[in-house]
Amino acid sequence: MTVEVGSKTEGKVTGITNFGAFVDLGEGQSGMVHISEIANGYVKDIHDVLKVGDTVKVLVLNEKDHKIALSIKQATEQPRKPKYQHHERKPQRKPVESFDDMMSGFMKESEERMSVIRKNTEGKRGGRGGRRS
After folding, report:
1. What is the rounded radius of gyration, in angstroms, for the C-alpha atoms of the chain?
2. pTM recorded for the entire structure
3. CA-closest candidate to residue 69, choices 44, 38, 42, 26
4. Could you list the residue range(s) of the whole structural domain that residue 64 is in?
């Protein structure tokens, strides 16, 4: 029996490498699940998720030159919720300030910065005030 692309089947993990896991599909056929197709999240070490002898449900992704690509993630994936839903709260904006409020805030901040600059430069040699004779 030849596996068909897009079909789901069960298999047994026969080997684990750094880049994926080999799965026996029965009747002398085996395929490989790449590390990126094992779980939805990031998998640093395959041994944390699978071990030799585990029975897994897989989806056949493609078959080329008797090499079968499999996916555990896509075989068991749940339908995802949309990222944004209408009933979610929107981030609240700051109340809009009038031009006079913004200008007074700018002037206050500007005066504070200028006073710090004056305090730091006037007391130093060669600062404001010109040359001494």
Report:
1. 33
2. 0.55
3. 38
4. 8-76
